[in-house]
Design a protein that fits this description.
globular, single chain, 2 domains, Rossmann fold, 378 residues, alpha/beta, 10 helices, binds nicotinamide-adenine-dinucleotide, Dihydrodipicolinate Reductase, domain 2, 6-stranded parallel beta sheet
Length: 378
């Protein structure tokens, strides 16, 4: 069993998720690589408290440069606000550490260009971007169908990620609602990579985009008794003309919404083709809907997909798969691909740097489309 010694930079919501996934690695049964958490870093003392209580043996730092100077750290998970991605990701790569970075992989196009240029200068390190929803077993099945070309000619693809907690106008502002920390992309920077992962991996490339972006709640409580401007885009709908391997254009609709009433954390994907159609939503995480057409009657069927992850686990096949499982599967994919030099399958693999670059071209074009109120070519 190969051990990869890992550090975490950014010990907030997502930093804790990785630490928890690493701590229950015994859950996975067919891997020959495992992470060992050896160090973590966050300038916020309170964020380190959970790590201190849960993993008393690991080193804790307030300055990430100290963590990077630790020779024993081989790989870093970096989950910090977007305005810090460029500086910290490049420093990680320059320190010769493997990187699983968080999306959007740079606050804007220029930052993403700089990170990719740095990665190109450090080809000895393995670099990927986080995105966990394709690891839901039903989505893995859809991935297998794409691999087998089961859909026929693609007619239409829709993908989205919907939240609703911002419907409450009294929710205090945080960094994800401020342009200087989250970026001009707003909800696209926050939610967009999740939506693009499967379409991009399938080879469905947007050629142009008409975006409708909405800033629905322009100010929010600042948490100190006053109000603060909330300048980021709350909702984005992107209608793209996309093409796949057969070069036949089809509509690709991508929705990223922070104000979608009734949606807690809904990631969905719907593919319509001449031979098959498939639908999945995390709202009903076991349910895979399929329509297969070989002439004759056309009918959707519903399948309850059990615990059938890409990387096998101890959990019985009839049990439910959830968000922490998807995070752990994503980590398994990252380490397995890093260790073996290839992904186990096309859809059980983390986002590649060039896919983040395509997402930045798309989101930058979407901003331009909103400004010009017209379709913008990528
Ligand atoms: N994959 C997912 O499902 C998912 C979900 C949420 C957020 N994210 C991404 O994860 C990243 C972090 O988001 P989050 O929700 O965990 O945010 P968060 O605010 O909960 O945590 C960010 C942490 O970074 C720390 N930090 C700030 N400056 C730092 C520095 N110089 N060095 C080290 N740590 C520093 C903060 O103190 C904070 O604890 C973002 O890129 C976000 O887009 C991914």
């Amino acid at each position: 069993m190969k051990t990869v010694r890992c550090g975490i930079i950014g010990c907030g919501l997502m930093g804790r998720e990785f630490a928890s996934a690493a701590a229950r690695w015994c859950h996975l049964t067919d891997l020959d690589v495992r992470p060992e958490l050896v160090a973590c870093c966050d300038p916020n003392e309170a964020a380190l408290g959970w790590f201190q209580a849960s993993f008393p043996a690991i080193k804790r730092y307030a300055d990430y440069r100290q963590l990077l100077s630790e020779p024993e750290v081989q790989a870093v998970y970096c989950a910090v606000p977007h305005h810090l991605h460029q500086q910290i990701y490049c420093d990680i790569l320059q320190a010769g550490k493997h990187l699983l970075g968080e999306k959007p992989f740079g606050i804007d196009q220029a930052a993403n260009d700089a990170i990719l240029a740095c990665a190109a200068r450090h080809k000895d390190v393995f670099v990927r971007c986080s995105s966990e929803f394709p690891f839901f077993p039903a989505v893995q099945r859809i991935g297998t169908m794409i691999e087998k070309d089961a859909f026929g000619t693609i007619l239409e693809v829709s993908a989205g990620f919907l939240h609703s907690s911002d419907l409450n106008p009294t929710k205090p502002i945080n960094w994800k609602r401020m342009v200087r920390f989250n970026g001009e992309y707003g909800c696209m920077g926050d939610l967009g990579m999740h939506v693009c992962h499967v379409p991009f991996r399938a080879g469905w490339t947007p050629r142009n985009v008409r975006a409708v972006l909405s800033n629905i709640v322009p100010e929010r409580p600042d948490g100190k008794g006053g109000m603060a401007p909330c300048e980021t885009w709350d909702n984005a709908t992107l209608l793209c003309e996309a093409t796949g391997a057969d070069k036949k254009p089809f509509p690709l609709t991508l929705k990223m919404q922070r104000i979608a009433p009734g949606e807690m954390n809904t990631w969905y994907l719907e593919i319509k083709g001449t031979k098959a159609c498939a639908r999945f939503s995390t709202k009903n995480p076991k349910r895979l809907e399929l329509l297969e057409y070989a002439g004759g009657e056309q009918a959707w069927r519903q399948i309850d997909v059990g615990y059938e992850p890409a990387f096998k686990a101890i959990t019985g096949g009839i049990f439910e798969f959830g968000f922490p499982d998807a995070i752990q599967q994503m980590w398994a994919a990252f380490l397995d691909e890093m260790h073996h030099g290839r992904a186990r399958n096309r859809f059980a693999s983390c986002v590649r740097p060039e896919e983040t670059a395509l997402s930045h071209r798309l989101f930058s074009a979407a901003l331009e489309s909103q400004r010009r109120q017209s379709t913008v070519a990528l």
